[in-house]
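REVIEWER CHECKLIST
Item 1: Sequence provided? yes
Item 2: Single chain? yes
Item 3: Sequence as submitted:
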Amino acid sequence: MDLFEDIAHSIRNAGTFPDQWMEYREMRIGWIGTGVMGRSMAGHLLAAGYELTVFNRTRDKARELLDRGAAWANSPAETAAGRDVVFTMVGYPRDVREVILGSAGALGGMSAGSVIVDCTTSSPSLAVEIAEAASGRGVASLDAPVSGGDVGARNAALSFMIGGDAAAFERVRPLFDRMGKTIVLQGGPGSGQHTKMVNQILIAPGMVAMCEAIVYARAAGLDPARVLESVSGGAAGSWSLSNYGPRILKGDLAPGFYVEHFLKDMRIALEEADRMKLCLPGLAQAKQLYTMLTAIGGGRNGTHALIKVLEAMCNQSGPGRLGTES
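Item 4: Structure as written out by the authors:
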């Protein structure tokens, strides 16, 4: 029985509102970052009836949410003022630092007892630093990067990898449930970010393999669409193959996740691996190929635009152009 069914059941049988409805109705949320992912994620909370205040460096990217009833704030600190939970979903660790710890950052506007949740893929050490700074103000902190891309964000099917305090996690859990399907507390501060590094280490070489396979299928004179139909249901199947393979064949290189952000993630993972004295050759090679993609103009395309590097290396041409986001 979900929350709305609980409410209806209580009203029919007792004429009263359950305690969780009161908490649900009164929880006030701030959201910082309304890009490809953040806009959809925040939209699910707004659709569920939560009071939402938003901030983004470019106001036009928040227009859809504002038109649906969200309030606008002029800074991260203003976004956080009087909010029970504040989410951030921005681009780089430097952006996370600015919008949370900066002079006009969210933490400066938050009250004791509130929770800051960073959904950006960022460095584990910064997550620990934020948790320590937040604790000093009586604020709880969760690092909660996600996986699932734009499709997962739109469909409320994201996977959340979370680090931080267990009590804060349980308090925010109803909000995670509105945006995702897999919500797992991994451990203390930084654990969510380390788990996201594992996720990216798995994805990066797989994206290379997917693009190599499509190039091979074309060279062999096969119909790539039929090939994907055959292999996606077997041992070679993956989320990337099922979701990005068809986009490649259509020439749709628009970002579900920006190449430049993926490169940032790989850099963080390789830095952490170096710190732990690990050798990750598959990830290192994938990073080199994505660096090449950025050099030829693909930094603002989706990660599956890697096909353009493989096509160039194999003297092939396929549909789609780099440097276009739609």
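Item 5: Key structural point noted by reviewer: Residues 116 and 141 are 5 Å apart (CA to CA).
Item 6: Recommendation: ____
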